[in-house]
Amino acid sequence: MTHYDLVVIGTGSGNSIVNHRFADWKVAIVERGVFGGTCLNKGCIPTKMFVHTADVAATPAGSSRYGVDEELLGIRWPEIRDRIFGRIDPIAAAGSEYRHHNPDNANVTVYDGTGRFTGVKELTVEDHDGVTSVITADRFVLAAGSRPVIPPIVGLEETGYHTSDTIMRLEELPRRLAILGSGFVAAEFAHVFSSFGVEVTLIARSKVMLRGEDAEIASQFTEIARGKYDVLLEHETIRATRLEDGSIRLWMLCPDGKEELIVDDLLVAVGRTPNADQLNPQATGVEVDREGRVVVDEYQQTAVDGIYALGDLTSPYQLKHVANHEARVVKHNLLEPDHRIKSDHRFVPHAVFTSPQIASVGLTEAEAEAQGVNFVVSRQKYADIAYGWAMEDTTGFAKLLADPETGQLLGAHIMGPQASTVIQPLIQAMSFGLNAHDMARGQYWIHPAMPELIENALLNLPLKPQE
Ligand SMILES: Cc1cc2nc3c(=O)[nH]c(=O)nc-3n(C[C@H](O)[C@H](O)[C@H](O)COP(=O)(O)OP(=O)(O)OC[C@H]3O[C@@H](n4cnc5c(N)ncnc54)[C@H](O)[C@@H]3O)c2cc1C
Ligand SMILES: NC(=O)c1ccc[n+]([C@@H]2O[C@H](COP(=O)([O-])OP(=O)(O)OC[C@H]3O[C@@H](n4cnc5c(N)ncnc54)[C@H](O)[C@@H]3O)[C@@H](O)[C@H]2O)c1
Q1: Which of 83, 285, 327, 335 has the highest count of CB atoms within 10 angstroms of its CB?
Q2: 245 and 137 together in one domain
Q3: Ligand 2 centre and the CA of 204: distance in Å?
Q4: Model pTM?
Q5: Which residues does the UniProt record annotate as the domain FAD/NAD(P)-binding (predicted)?
């Protein structure tokens, strides 16, 4: 049994913690999969590379409104896939090589295997050949992430399916793809594959896609999506089977009774569950809540002194920028135990990189109502700002919620071109307490650029006149 000062489980955001400041510490890093975790290998980064490529592929279909006639001549899927992973796989390999062999990591031992707590501050790691090592440590960082949820649909396991872990490495594009789910992953991949000419059918249990968004965004996005691919709403998939010709038949319950669908491939995208169950953290006294998340306090520490957790394993926000923020907090608290800092989850933004893009921060209108806060709302269409004219945009808009007395922004929701970028000044204003009036009139807004959307949305807020 080897004892360490620190053991980090998971090399997603957990890997960023150990640097030269830990040179005097005896450290172990445990990773069962590919170095770099979900975001690099199977999440944010490759998906956005596919999304950008899909945006390019979708351009000709919308070009004629500018008087430009373009034609999409073809999609070279293997080339797209290999370009993307040809960039990503070497980064993961270099990360692993660095930790295993670079002299910077002389104090770091890497265990390539699956860790599981077997006692108080005692972890058993099983490597890929089934060999086990037992290690103990004064401190642990639990950064083991999450995995796709697989719903209990009859016949699904035997039929076979893809998740976001595998769909990006397909050998060839299917002719027909069903996507089960209507959240982030479903909306992003529906855009990718439909733009590449695949016949996509998205199967949603809910009445709208992206039901976590502000209701206006969710309903308007759903209408736009229905113009691009098939969206089956209020459909519950109950059975799947593989047919002799290799295709897949799905049975669904829907408001009209039952329906069947035949496709060539199936992507399951119905959420992600934390990997805490596989880590057995209870053996070391770490609590797990009813959603399966490791419970932490505001310092990211679990119930056990010296055991910290971060990212998808513990957070209701399964987002990389949150995992990164929490990793920075954990790193500080490990190094400065007498001056610990708290993580800041006040204004966590997110973006859905679909088409049109969606970005959001703060309260939705329904949440503001449920919380009984005093608020006013403004809306601004892209179609009514100069850059929106240039883009001939007809569907995009920004919606802001603010406190009418103070002008403090409470929520911002944008659907339209570059929403993920356009929202950033609003995140900044909310984070630093800048009120809507000062934000709108205390700075120049470049004319005629896209952020004029925000300037106008701010000016549209029916705030109490300033003294
Ligand atoms: C398709 C997709 C697209 C996404 N796009 C975005 C996006 O655009 N923007 C965004 O903010 N977020 C996005 N996310 C979410 C983001 O990827 C995650 O929130 C983030 O990667 C979580 O980081 P983490 O460090 O908590 O976990 P991970 O990066 O998942 O790292 C956990 C690591 O722990 C290892 N591990 C797990 N269990 C064990 C064990 N028992 N022993 C040893 N090792 C173990 C795993 O192999 C993994 O490498 C996306 C996710 C998906 C699936
Ligand atoms: N751009 C980004 O930041 C980004 C992109 C992808 C993923 N992510 C993260 O990964 C997480 C997981 O993404 P996701 O899309 O898998 O989950 P999600 O939680 O966003 O959406 C899952 C959806 O599937 C529905 N669902 C659940 N069970 C179902 C069933 N049996 N049949 C049909 N629908 C069902 C749910 O009602 C929900 O609407 C996201 O919540 C997000 O935090 C982020």
Answers
A1: 327
A2: no
A3: 11
A4: 0.98
A5: 4-326
